[in-house]
């Protein structure tokens, strides 16, 4: 008997190799996948604008990175004691103009360089809702806890979403390697503050738009993270206490599905061994001077050296 409706992911013709570089951008789920890749010692760069959710803002970030377009004082606002970019996550905020600009522009420079050498781009969309900052008539990525009276919230239109995703793909194909692979997903995190019905409308618009784009480009893929959590793992035991975010078990399950479809055998073995080494490095012995612990450390050093010999980039 079957008690679950499993979501199958076709095995990709293009496989993730151990020397490949992965650039990720979008919601916190993109960060979850990027963190696991980094833990597996794959070369990664994640969210140089901080966490972003809607296709318009993600495309704006990709355009800035593509053009290596630095921000200036005119692009920022001051609220309270902080200097803020409405295109960025609040982690870029600071009390001083030069500090905020340094954070922003150094990430743009690093992102531009990384994109030119990247093999995979992972994009995770979270919502179709967007806010307009009324004083500047500007669509924003983050409201930074500025009072709601300064914003107007609305759903992006279907055309705005598909146009944004289309431009994102064309920009990436221009700046990245010729055979760059672009992997889309829709975040399984439900934006319940928008309302349950509204969240479903928002997610459905994203899923529909992504599939419209997949039909127009080669080397574009869809990872059904949203569908896996909604249908395959249809149980609140796979959520954190807020009943919104997937817990570690759910993220690990989606990660394994991703790896089984997109990792070569060599990459799978490489990543899994690095996970084990990372866990071993965190081990705290009861007696650091014991012969058994020294033997453990010597064995661990050999395992690390064996892994280091497999790649050109620096690991551990």
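-> sequence recovered:
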């Amino acid at each position: 008997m079957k008690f679950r409706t499993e979501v199958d992911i076709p095995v990709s013709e293009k496989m993730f190799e151990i020397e490949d570089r992965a650039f990720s951008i979008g919601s916190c789920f993109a960060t979850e996948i990027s963190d696991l890749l980094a833990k597996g010692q794959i070369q990664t760069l994640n969210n140089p604008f901080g966490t972003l959710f809607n296709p318009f803002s993600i495309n704006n970030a990709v355009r800035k990175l593509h053009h290596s377009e630095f921000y200036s004082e005119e692009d920022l606002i001051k609220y309270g004691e902080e200097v803020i970019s409405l295109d960025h996550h609040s982690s870029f905020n600071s009390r001083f103009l030069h500090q905020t600009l340094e954070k922003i522009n150094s990430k743009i420079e690093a992102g531009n360089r990384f994109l030119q050498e990247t093999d995979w781009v992972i994009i995770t969309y979270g919502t179709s809702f967007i806010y307009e900052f009324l004083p500047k008539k500007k669509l924003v990525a983050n409201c930074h806890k500025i009072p709601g009276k300064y914003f107007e919230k609305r759903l992006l239109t279907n055309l705005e979403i598909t146009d944004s995703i289309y431009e994102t793909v064309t920009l990436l194909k221009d700046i990245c390697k010729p055979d760059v692979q672009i992997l889309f997903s829709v975040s399984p995190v439900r934006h319940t503050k928008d309302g349950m019905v509204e969240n479903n409308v928002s997610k459905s618009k994203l899923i529909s738009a992504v599939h419209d784009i997949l039909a127009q480009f080669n080397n574009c893929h869809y990872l059904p993270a949203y569908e896996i959590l909604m249908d395959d793992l249809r149980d609140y035991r796979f959520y954190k206490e807020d009943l919104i975010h997937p817990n570690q078990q759910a993220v690990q399950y989606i990660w394994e599905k991703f790896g089984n479809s997109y990792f070569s055998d060599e990459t799978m073995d490489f990543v899994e061994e690095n996970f084990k080494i990372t866990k071993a490095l965190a081990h705290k012995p009861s007696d650091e001077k014991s012969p058994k612990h020294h033997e453990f450390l010597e064995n661990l050093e050999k395992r690390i050296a064996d892994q280091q010999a497999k790649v050109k980039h620096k690991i551990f």
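The mean pLDDT is 96.
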